[in-house]
Amino acid sequence: MLEAVKYxxxxxxxxGFGSRSTGEEVTAAAPDLRSITAIITGATxxxxxxxxxxxxxxxxxxxxxxxxxxxxEETRARIAAAFPGADVIVLxxxxxxxxxxxxxxxxxxxxxLPLNLLINNAGxxxxxxxxxxxxxxxxxxxxxxxxxxxxxxxxxxxxxxASETGxxxxxxxxxxxxxxxxxxxxxxxxxxxxxxxxxYDATQAYALSKLANVxxxxxxxxxxxxxDADVTANCVHPGIVRTRLTRDREGLVTDLAFFLxxxxxxxxxxxxxxxxxxxxxxxxxxASGKYFxxxxxxxxxSLASSPHEAGRLWxxxxxxxxxxxxxxxxxxxxxxxxEM
Length: 340
Prior knowledge:
By secondary structure, the protein is of the alpha/beta class. The protein has twelve helices and eight strands.
């Protein structure tokens, strides 16, 4: 009950921030990010767009991967209008496609830019059962597996940048408290769901993907330490906010539900705060493998805290993302101006 009251009134936690803090407020301690290059997935709307805006305001160079290049260009135009001189690069990426992930990484590396910050923010809630081109349930493929491969392929560049610049790299995985709604065997459920051996439950599919984000963070932290890479990985729950995630179910029922819950909802600037805090605040230098909510360290579910399950998922993810027909081409043949 006390925690609920603290949330509603926005009481500050140990970090000095709380549920009502905004991205601009939490980045005030890191006002000059001109030395930072950041990749932010899902930055064309909602929390991702606000995260991009705040980091651009602080001077960071942004790389915005997007499935819709039109939406990404609109985001870039808005940022440029607000902050003339902002350095924003748009590249195509469809996270549900492993081939597209590899193409994006090839394009990015060809730019010969540093990489200090990777924010895996993009999220999808599939109301209907669908399978990706790689044969994986669509919500899991988009929210987790694409980010898993993206992170893996960019890690060498992040480690190299940290070594050359002396600036610690940071990876931020955006999860959700909904990860705690899933219990059971993750991989078995994914297999049964993908093959339609069980009834498709959109909420459980989403919860599974967000649990995978936490597992990814935990296992990645240990691997970064063993690599001796000066890169941290942390996970965040942004809070409950109405974004385009519900765009497929707009209507009276959805509108009524959000109206009744309006006192619990965050604004988008508030929802972006935890991501911005974990990505930039000097206090978190060296902090890794942690889960944050309302800009403060929190505890994930017991299942999400299992090292065994995190390692098991990692091994399965490596198998699912392994090239099946030889290595990908060094650079994609399609034009970067074409929407993927």
